[in-house]
Every structure is written in C-alpha cells, then in structure tokens.
Amino acid sequence: MIEDRISETTGINLNLSDAKEGFGASFFNVSDRKGFIETIDQFTKMIIGTCLSDRSAHFVETMKNEALQEWDRHEFYTGRARAIHRAEIGLVREDQLATSTQLSEQSDTWISQKASLEFTNDAITAEIARITVEWEKLNDNFNASIIERDNLQAQLIAQSKELDSARAALEESATLQHDIASVLADRDALAVRISDQAATWNDQRLALESALETALADGARLAQERSSLLGRFEEVTRERDTIRALQERGLLQSVWARLDDALRPGKT
C-alpha cells in the first residue's frame, strides 16, 4: 500500500484508510510539452536535493516518472476531446459573460434612474415645503387683512354716524357741507381700496393653493415611478443571480454529458 511505502521511507505513521477518490476534469492546456517536463524535472531535483537517503530520492524520481507517464496517457486519450470541449466551454463562458455584463449595465442604469428620481422627488418635496410655508404666510396676511378691513369698516361706520349727526346739525353751513362731502369721498375711496386689496390677496392665495396641489400630484407620480423602478431593479438582480447559478449547475452538467458521450468506447 502507498501509505506503507511512505511510512517506510519517511518513518512517519500515515493512515489513508479514510481517503476517498474524487473524479474531476481539468481543461489545463500545456502548450509547450518540453518546457513543462523541464519544469517538473527542476522541481524534482530540488526535492531530491533535500532527501536523506538514496531510497527516498529514488522514490521521488519514481513518482515523477509515473506521474509523467500517466499524464502522457491522459493527453493521448483525452487531449483532442478536451480541446474541442474547451472551445465549447469558452463560447459558453463568453455568452455568460456578455449576459452578465448586459445585466450589470442594465442594473447600473436602473440605479442611476432611481437616484435621479430620488433627487427629483427631494427637490419637489422641498418645493412643496417652500410653497406651503409661503401659502401659510400669505394666509396669515390675508386673515390679518380681513381683521384690518373689519376694523376699517367699523371706523367707517363710526365716521358715517358722526358725519350724519354733523350733517343733520349743520345742514346750513356750506363749509361743513364741503367737509362732509370730502370725508364721504375719502370713505368711498378707502372702501374701494380695501375691496381691491382683498380681491388681490384672495387671487394670490388661490394661485398658491393651485401650485401646491400640482406639486403634490407630481410628488405622488414620482413616488409611483420610483416604486416601479425598485421592482424592476429587484427583478434584474434575481435574473443576474439565476444566470450565475446556471454557470455552476446546468451549463456544466450539459458539458459533462457531451464530454462523456465523446469519450464513450466506440466514439471517435
């Protein structure tokens, strides 16, 4: 047994009873057979230089020769088939790489669009907040103007009462009549100015309310688009992970099936 030979040579108690043989395939390609063998020879000489006896050196040399013989036999029986399937696997890997690259680029595009929408959404949110503050300020001014208008109207009513009393008492005084007419004209002009100002403030408030509703609608639309893009981004990520899993399972199984068929007795 191999462990007995190693134990006799090295003096180390070695037990390989639980070792399991594994089968695999290697698509390692040696383009320069002479250079490969020379490299193995150099490493073998280095190992032999550290051996403690001629027997151990002979053992290393024997292992090297047997390994090279097995490699020659392997190249003779499987070299051509491995070259064919190595090219096929190369094409499969190129296709997988192209698909993975395409999915990565698409994922990057979705991420960029997502960031752009988030930036736009933040800008609209800030604009909504600004319009809301401005609308609240204008509404406060409008309410203050209403209070001021009521106060002015109360003053006008009081002045009207005073003027009516003065006119009744001094109807015969031309000077007082002129003063009364002037005060009445001022009162009417003030009433017109108050009415115009109230109408202007009301129009401004309606315009700000319309702008606020538009901004809120845009914000809802962007939120829906962002949710849709997030869903698509997750779908693209799952597709990319599926392709990577296929690289390790389905595609390699197909290649092994074709390799087994090519190496089966009776096949050329």
Description:
It is rod-shaped and about 150 Å long. With 268 residues, it is mostly helical. It has one domain: Helix Hairpins (Orthogonal Bundle). The two termini are 36 Å apart. Helices cover 86% and strands 0% of the residues. It is built from five helices and no strands. The model has no long low-confidence stretch (mean pLDDT 80).
Total individual domains = 1
Mean pLDDT, all residues:
80
Relative strand content: under 5%
Rg from alpha-carbon coordinates: 48 Å
CATH domain class name: Mainly Alpha
How would you describe the shape?
A: rod-shaped
The CATH topology comes to: Helix Hairpins
Write the layout of secondary structure elements.
Elements: H1 2-10, H2 33-48, H3 54-169, H4 174-248, H5 250-263
Helix pairs in contact: 2-3, 3-4, 3-5
At a glance:
The chain has 268 residues and is mainly α. Helix content is 86%, strand content 0%.
Keywords, please?
5 helices; Helix Hairpins; 268 residues; mainly alpha; single chain; 86% helix
